[in-house]
Design a protein that fits this description.
- The protein is an all-alpha fold.
- 76% of the residues lie in helices and 0% in strands.
- α1 (3-28) packs antiparallel against α5.
- The two termini are 18 Å apart.
Length: 295
């Protein structure tokens, strides 16, 4: 398969997987605390990928360790806790929509840290999408009424994703996607996630009853598909495209997240729906013309 077809196949697949992650987080929170959901998500992915990491331990990038640690914690540790924390206050649909701001942060981080070139059109798109986020935050009613803190938490998680994406593209592209994912979850994040889980009192409170087993099922789906498999695909997407192209997976993710949310009984106010359209419109605008960043 040529790179052009592969990057679009990866983009669509990731949109479906990650777009479904928000409803899985919501369902997991019915059984565990947000800190337990985040820790379990990383820990299970680490256990599954451990054989790959051990088999390829000689390839561990010691000279690039600081970049590996940065990419691991910003892309696969902190957001795993921030999204569940935010989703205790806002719907999975809102979380999916706010996450669509990632290309904005990729442009900002890429420009400030990695000196990626930024066009005027991209900056206008950033401003348009920012207006959309404001509408989304202020336009709710009822259970989705204005809540600035969870929106800020979601934006922080999305910013972390952007830092990780640009770091991987700039410093870690010589490592295969599967091996990189294995190193991230098994060697770098396994112990931090284990300690985080134990700190929640999980070991002393867990009982293998029906409800907890259902909860573990949701978290396991989230870990296997939304974390382990998705990150392999994301790293591969970064190899065959640019950080900006890879980040536009978030254009399609809100659609998937909203569909799952509506099926689960969630609602968006007319103003919030308008805000979502403005966000996506800004992202489409900044990508509608060849940008200085190759994509």
């Amino acid at each position: 398969m040529n790179a052009e077809k592969e990057k679009w196949l990866l983009l669509i697949s990731l949109s479906l997987i990650w777009g479904s992650s928000f409803i899985l987080i919501k369902k997991s929170l019915l059984h565990f605390s947000p800190y337990q959901v985040g820790a379990l998500r990383v820990l299970i992915a680490g256990i599954i990928l451990m054989p790959v990491a051990i088999k390829n331990y000689k390839l561990f990038p010691r000279k690039q360790l600081k970049w590996l640690i940065l990419a691991a914690f910003t892309g696969n540790f902190f957001p795993m806790f921030l999204f569940p924390i935010a989703e205790t206050e806002v719907s999975s649909s809102i979380a999916g929509i706010v996450n669509s701001m990632m290309p904005i942060f990729v442009i900002i981080v890429g420009s400030l840290i990695w000196k990626f070139q930024t066009t005027r059109r991209q900056m206008i798109g950033v401003l348009i999408s920012f207006v959309g986020v404001c509408i989304l935050a202020f336009g709710g009613n009822g259970e989705n009424a204005f809540k600035i803190l969870p929106i800020l938490i979601l934006l922080t998680a999305t910013f972390c994703y952007a830092v990780s994406t640009t770091t991987v593209k700039s410093k870690l592209m010589d490592i295969s996607s599967t091996v990189l994912s294995a190193f991230v979850f098994s060697f770098v994040l396994f112990l931090p996630s284990l300690f985080s889980l134990l700190a929640t009192g999980f070991a002393s409170t867990l009982t293998l009853d029906k409800e907890n087993l259902i909860g573990l099922g949701f978290v396991s789906l989230l870990a296997v598909f939304g974390t382990g498999l998705a990150m392999m695909m994301n790293y591969r997407l970064l190899k065959v495209s640019s950080p900006l192209f890879a980040s536009t997976v978030t254009l399609l993710m809100p659609i998937v997240a909203i569909i799952w949310g509506l099926l689960d009984g969630e609602t968006l106010s007319a103003l919030q729906f308008s805000g979502a359209i403005v966000i996506i419109g800004g992202l489409i605008f900044l990508r509608s013309k060849a940008a200085a960043v190759k994509n």
